[in-house]
Amino acid sequence: MEQELRVFAFNTGWFQCRPGYFIAGETGDYIRGPVPSFLIDHPKGRALFDTGMGVRYRRDRADALPANKFGLEWFEGMEIAARLRAIDVDPASINWIINSHCHIDHCGGNATIPNATVILQSRELAAARNSEEPMLYDSADFDTGHPILAIDGEHDLFGDGSVRIVPTYGHTDGHQSVIVKLPGGDVLLAGDCCYTERNLDLMVLQTAVVDAELGMATMERLANLRRQGTRIIFGHDGRQWSTMRENAPLD
């Protein structure tokens, strides 16, 4: 019997910030959001959607971020290579890395996945290479010597419609998401085009967007997909993540 398409969700770290960074205009105490990565296990190959943060954000538990500080962190065993090994998947067996974009918390683990081809929107690759913002784009994360497949617009990864890379511009010039057809229905892995479910409920962007008009067009697309029954897994939603099962296939 042929293996079914499966998706595994992992939290590869934490993103801590004020609510207003996630949802423009909101106030309150600092909150912690996950830094997700997803294994897409297809009969024709394996892909990762995002790879989390690089080693410079590793912390010991005794040196965790204070509750009132903006920042990124991960602890031993949370990095994507370790998360894969925890479910008996060799990082060297990954064929593709689909980076939603090239910010430091989405491609920092690329270097630990040695044999993959990286898939990026060509406009995102150009933006990353031309950026003068090292706190967002660091070439150590995205220029790792991997083969790169630069695409423009939608891309059917396995040619059967089951894993579609779709442009979701706004947060960055070339942000992309993935729609996976699972037995229980379509799942959209949002990345940073929509940080939390509350953003979509309110139709309010996060603070960090390079093009608000494109960002709102993306939000409208997500809202339409949600109305049609697509399940959306948001980019940094701590509340949603508390309901997720890690190390097991998504339902």
From TrEMBL:
Cofactor(s) needed for function: Zn(2+)
InterPro entries referenced in this protein's UniProt entry, alphabetically: MBL_superfamily_lactonases, Metallo-B-lactamas, RibonucZ/Hydroxyglut_hydro
Entry keyword annotation includes RNA-binding: no
Keywords on record: Hydrolase, Metal-binding, Zinc
Gene3D superfamilies assigned: Ribonuclease Z/Hydroxyacylglutathione hydrolase-like
GO molecular function: hydrolase activity; metal ion binding
Metallo-beta-lactamase domain boundaries: 34-236
tRNA-binding in keyword set: no
Superkingdom of the source species: Bacteria
Similarity remark: Belongs to the metallo-beta-lactamase superfamily.
Protein name per its UniProtKB record: N-acyl homoserine lactonase family protein
Organism in which the protein naturally occurs: Sphingomonas lacunae
